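Please fill in the sequence for the structure shown.

STRUCTURE ENCODING:
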C-alpha cells in the first residue's frame, strides 16, 4: 500500500536519532535480498537485529524518520578506512513512502550533520542499477568522484559510484 503525502504535510515526519527501540522496525524496512544488497552490500540476508547491533558499533549517527512514531526511514554515517571521508550509508525509505520527498529530506539532514560536526565534504555511494537513488543524489548536487567494480549476488557486474558534495557547492 502506498501512503500518499501532500507536499505541505511532509513536515509532519520527524527525523531523529535512532536507538535500540527502533531496531526491529529498521530491520523490517529491508524487504528483499536484492534491495538489501544495494543498501548494505557487506551485510547478510536475511537482515536481522544482531547484524544491526553490530552495524551500530561500526557506524555513527543512526537516524530514523518517523511517521506517528512508526519508523519509515533510516540512514547512518561512517568513515572510510583512513577516517578522512565521511559517508552517508544504509539509506532506506519504506516502500509505502517512496517517491514523495522523504528520502531527499533525510539525505539533506544527514548532510547537515556532517557539515556541522565532521567535515566540509559529504560522500555517498550508490550502485548504477539503483536509478532512483542515483537521480536523487545528483539532483542534490552530488558529483561522481570514483567508480568501483562490484559483483551482485547473482554474479552480474555492477558499478559502485562514489559521489561527493562540498559544503560550498550547496
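FILLED IN BY: designer on duty
SEQUENCE:
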Amino acid at each position: 500500500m502506498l501512503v500518499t503525502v501532500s507536499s505541505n504535510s511532509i513536515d509532519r515526519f520527524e527525523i531523529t536519532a535512532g536507538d535500540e527501540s527502533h531496531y526491529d522496525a529498521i530491520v523490517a524496512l529491508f524487504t528483499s535480498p536484492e534491495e538489501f544488497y544495494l543498501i548494505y552490500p557487506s551485510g547478510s540476508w536475511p537482515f536481522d537485529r544482531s547484524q544491526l547491533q553490530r552495524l551500530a558499533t561500526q557506524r555513527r549517527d543512526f537516524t530514523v524518520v518517523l511517521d506517528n512514531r512508526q519508523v519509515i526511514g533510516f540512514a547512518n554515517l561512517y568513515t572510510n578506512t583512513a577516517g578522512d571521508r565521511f559517508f552517508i550509508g544504509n539509506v532506506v525509505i519504506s516502500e509505502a513512502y517512496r517517491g514523495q520527498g522523504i528520502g531527499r529530506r533525510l539525505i539533506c539532514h544527514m548532510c547537515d550533520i556532517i557539515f556541522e560536526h565532521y567535515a566540509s565534504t559529504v560522500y555517498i555511494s550508490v550502485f548504477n542499477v539503483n536509478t532512483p537513488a542515483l537521480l536523487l543524489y545528483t539532483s542534490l548536487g552530488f558529483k561522481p568522484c570514483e567508480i568501483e567494480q562490484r559483483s551482485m549476488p547473482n554474479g552480474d557486474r555492477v558499478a559502485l559510484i562514489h559521489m561527493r558534495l562540498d559544503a560550498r557547492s550547496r
